[in-house]
Design a protein that fits this description.
By secondary structure, the protein is α+β, with helices and mostly antiparallel strands. It contains two helices and four strands. A hairpin with a 6-residue loop joins β1 and β2.
Length: about 110
């Protein structure tokens, strides 16, 4: 049975040379490997099993972006949560209404 990697050993390495048109991503972190699996399935990219723990993926340049962190105030966070709650309630009301209409059409 293979030993498990400690959290400190679960690394992700992203590299690219200036003349390459893709990113080389190696990871043995289970969370990152799940994210890579989603990306590769969505874009039809193959994954290479490198060793007992890690996988390597060659991603197109557009799949990797570097961004500054987004900092929002507590008030803005509360506003966004309230907005999300209102949207969820409105979507639920629409869904209930459409189900009622479908039942009425089926009965009538």
């Amino acid at each position: 049975m293979a030993r498990r990697l400690s959290r400190a050993e679960q690394e992700t390495i992203i590299t690219r040379a200036a003349d390459e048109k893709e990113w080389h991503v190696y990871s043995c972190d289970p969370a990152v490997k799940r994210q890579l699996a989603k990306i590769t399935q969505a874009h039809g990219i193959s994954t290479t099993i490198v060793d007992e723990w890690g996988v390597e993926v060659k991603l197109p340049l557009l799949c990797v972006r570097f961004m500054s962190p987004i900092v929002i105030s507590a008030q803005e966070r509360a506003n966004r949560a309230a907005r999300a709650g209102r949207l969820a309630a409105a979507n639920k009301a629409k869904r209930v209404e459409s189900e009622q209409e479908a039942c009425e059409r089926a009965a009538g």
